[in-house]
Amino acid sequence: MRTAAIAVTIPKLTHYTIPSSTIINPLKLNENSEFSWTPLKHDSVLTHSNSGKLAKHWMEYQGINNWEGLLDPLDDVLRSEILKYGRFVEAAYQSFDFDPSSPTYATSKFHKNSILTRSCIGETGYKPTKHLRATCGIQLPGWVDRGPSWVSTRSSWIGYVAVCQDKEEIARLGRRDVVIAFRGTATCLEWLENLRATLTCLPDDVVNVVGPENGGAMVESGFLSLYTSDSDTCPSLQHMVREEIGTVLQTYGDEPLSFTITGHSLGAALATLAAYDINSTFSDAPMVTVISFGGPRVGNQNFRCQLEKSGTKILRIVNSDDLITKVPGFVIDNDDTEMTSNQALNVVGLPRWVRKRVEDAPLVYADVGQELRLSSKECPYLCKEGVVSCHELSTYLHLVNGFVSSNCPFRATAMRVLYKHHRQKLGSY
């Protein structure tokens, strides 16, 4: 068993990720021309090319075979679908009211039916059916409520559910697709939840459904809190997701159907929890796929095993220069069978205080799903500095749009790389 370097959430990381206003709009950096995302000419985010291929093999593109043979080099149809789901997440950001002085702060600026059209992401063929909200479960001292309202905002709009209704799009996809899209961290209390990095057991209602073989599956405390907490005026995100999925299954359960859950940053973590919850709650659930961008770690190795047993397919889009994808906690490089809660951790070579920390607090995480690894440093159009810029959703969309393969990381350099290989090949004769 080999232990990777520690990556615990610490004040230095907070310094880079939380500005003085405590609020980040992950789309605002697009105003800087160095970070603007300009799609390459022959790609359209919502392209309808190769529609026959997608319709015929849609389960492969949803990850039934863990995207084998589609990631390196990146298949163009899969690229288009990844970008499409990224734009659904972008719509969640565009719809959120980031202005603390606004009376509608932390809500959606748009009516449910107009989220996609007013977010200017183009024609999708999907119709939003439900707003989703997340509630912070942190207990704060009473004096916090006497401060600015944006500091103590517990429940906030986090995303939406949209169902594909367009007949041509359904034909192109080969099934009716249901999207759940989550934005990333925005409010003060969401930031505090992110910092609760210790692992905690899944709630009884999920454990009871999964069964006793659940074997110590644990997830990050703050993410679970945002997913399961409720208030007097707002049901939990978990309740809203389950309610809407139940309605969708009742309405469309007799036709080819897929659930695609997508999110960025915090939204990626919530997407993973929601996917696990859907597969654990609904025995008749269709294929559930997660497309995540810049997501942090979510749970331990047993949680990963339970995800795999449930049939949940996860494609993590990771920028190797993005620190958020390296937190929280430790990662044990071990693909063996499940670890029990009593199994000792091999942390040889780490300082004594680190070993003590591992023993005293559950901080051992495991990466989940299949990974598409990209790098800002390989892109000739992106600034090579800035922790925040590496985590931007727009950066991720730009990298996906240009990625070719691990041997030729970016399309703009493809001809040069191919020419170099051709010259080397000629020289070997």
TrEMBL record:
One of its GO terms (cellular component) is chloroplast. The keyword Transit peptide applies. One of its GO terms (molecular function) is phospholipase A1 activity. Coiled coil: none annotated. InterPro entries: AB_hydrolase_fold, Fungal_lipase-type. It comes from the Eukaryota. Residues 179-330 form the Fungal lipase-type domain. Belongs to the AB hydrolase superfamily. Lipase family. Keywords: Chloroplast, Hydrolase, Lipid degradation, Lipid metabolism, Plastid, Transit peptide. CDD domains: Lipase_3. This is Fungal lipase-type domain-containing protein. GO terms for biological process: lipid catabolic process.
